[in-house]
Design brief:
Blueprint (H helix, E strand, L loop, with lengths): L3 H21 L23 E4 L20 H18 L30 E3 L9 H12 L31 E7 L2 E6 L5 E5 L12 E5 L2 E5 L6 E7 L2 E7 L26 E10 L2 E9 L8 E9 L11 H25 L2
Antiparallel strand pairs: 1-3, 1-12, 2-12, 3-4, 4-5, 6-7, 8-9, 9-10, 10-11, 11-12
C-alpha cells in the first residue's frame, strides 16, 4: 500500500506535467511588451527550465577586495583568461588520470550579467563568514576521506547536494525545471535528480514536527531531520519565499569544487535557509538565499544571482553510477595502501 505522503507526491508531480500547458496559454504574444505571466490560480509564473552556469566565483577573490563589480572590459578579460587556462590545463585520452577533460564539463564561459565579482553579496566583502572551528571540521573530513564513506562528500555518495548547495553553480548539470500546481511549487534539479516539492500557502503555516528515527520496538535514536530540510513556501507580492529548516546534521553547505574553500563546510540541524525567487524578465529569475547556522558562521550571509531561461535545454537522467561503484573501489584501494605501508614497517 502506498503511504499517504507518497500518494500526495505522485499526485503533485503528475498534475505538474499537465499544469504548464495551462499556464503557457497565458504567455504574451511574440513581440509584445513583457508582462509577468500568471498561473491559472493567479500566482506569478516561474515555470520553465533555468540555468545558472557561470565563471563568477562563489566568494570574491582576495585580489578583488573592495571591488563589488567588474567593468565590461574587466569581465571580457577575465572570461578570456579562464578560457585560456582551460585550454592549457585540459587533458585528453582515456588513459589520463584525474577528472574529466573539458569536453564533459558545462560550467559556463561568462561572468554573471550583473558583473558582480562574487555570488556572495552579503557580507559586503563577498566572503562567507565561516568560523575557524567549521573549517577545522572540513579539513578533518578531507584528511580522513579514504577512511570511511562517512567522511566523503554527500555528492560523491549520490545522496544529495543539499539546500542551498544544489542551487549553487557547479562544473556541469546546472539546470533546474520549475513547475507549479495549486498549493505547490516543484523544483527539479538536474544534478543528483533531487525534486523539491514545496507546499505553498496554508500548508506552509502548519507547525513543523521533529522527525524521530525509530529503532523498532518502541526505541528511538532521538530527533532527526532531512538531508534537504523541510521547505515551506509563501508569496510576498510577486516573490516566492521558501523557508527551509528541520535539517539533519550530516550535510555540507556545498559539495562542489566550484565553491572553493566552502566545499565541505558542514551544517548543523540548526541551519535555516531562506530563498527568494522573483521573475524580473521573460527570461530571468532573480534568485537569492540567506543562510543562517550560528555554530558554523559568525553571522548570516547571502548569495544572489540570476537564473536564465533556456527552453532548448534538455535535462537527462542523472543516474550517479560512479558513486555506486567508485566509492567501494576508493575504500578498497585505501585499505590496500594501508596494508602495503604496514608491511614496509615490519622488520
Amino acid at each position: 500500500m502506498l503511504r499517504p505522503a507518497l500518494i500526495v507526491s505522485v499526485a503533485v508531480v503528475m498534475f505538474a506535467l499537465q499544469w504548464p500547458n495551462l499556464a503557457n496559454a497565458q504567455a504574451p504574444a511574440a513581440g509584445a511588451r513583457w508582462t509577468l505571466a500568471r498561473t491559472p490560480d493567479g500566482q506569478p509564473d516561474l515555470q520553465g527550465i533555468w540555468t545558472n552556469a557561470t565563471v563568477t566565483p562563489l566568494e570574491r577573490p582576495r585580489a578583488l577586495a573592495g571591488k563589488a563589480f567588474l567593468t565590461d572590459a574587466e569581465a571580457a578579460a577575465l572570461e578570456k583568461q579562464i578560457a585560456q587556462q582551460r585550454v592549457a590545463s585540459d587533458k585528453f585520452g582515456p588513459l589520463e588520470s584525474g577528472s574529466y577533460n573539458q569536453f564533459w564539463y558545462d560550467s559556463g564561459t561568462k561572468v554573471l550579467s550583473t558583473r558582480q565579482t562574487s555570488l556572495v553579496v552579503d557580507p559586503p566583502d563577498g566572503r562567507v563568514p565561516v568560523r575557524p572551528s567549521a573549517e577545522a571540521r572540513r579539513d578533518d573530513n578531507a584528511a580522513h576521506n579514504d577512511d570511511s564513506y562517512e567522511f566523503m562528500s554527500r555528492w560523491d555518495r549520490c545522496i544529495t547536494r543539499g539546500v542551498p548547495g544544489s542551487m549553487f553553480p557547479a562544473g556541469y548539470n546546472n539546470a533546474y525545471q520549475i513547475v507549479q500546481v495549486p498549493g505547490y511549487v516543484v523544483i527539479a534539479h538536474e544534478m543528483i535528480h533531487d525534486a523539491r516539492i514545496i507546499p505553498i500557502g496554508l500548508d506552509a503555516s502548519l507547525p513543523r514536527r521533529p522527525v524521530r528515527r525509530s529503532l523498532g520496538g518502541g526505541g528511538s535514536l532521538g530527533e532527526g531531520g532531512f538531508w534537504m530540510g523541510d521547505s515551506r513556501g509563501r508569496w510576498e507580492g510577486d516573490t516566492l519565499v521558501v523557508e527551509t529548516t528541520n535539517f539533519n546534521n550530516k550535510g555540507w553547505i556545498s559539495t562542489s569544487a566550484a565553491s572553493g574553500r566552502i566545499k565541505g563546510i558542514p551544517h548543523t540541524d540548526q541551519l535555516k535557509v531562506v530563498e527568494r525567487l522573483t521573475r524580473v524578465a521573460k527570461d530571468t529569475i532573480q534568485y537569492s538565499v540567506t543562510i543562517e547556522d550560528p555554530e558554523i558562521y559568525t553571522r548570516p550571509w547571502t548569495v544572489s544571482f540570476p537564473l536564465s531561461e533556456d527552453p532548448e535545454y534538455r535535462i537527462y537522467e542523472y543516474a550517479c553510477h560512479e558513486g555506486n561503484y567508485a566509492l567501494e573501489n576508493i575504500l578498497r584501494g585505501a585499505r590496500a595502501a594501508d596494508a602495503a605501508a604496514a608491511a614496509r614497517k615490519k622488520p
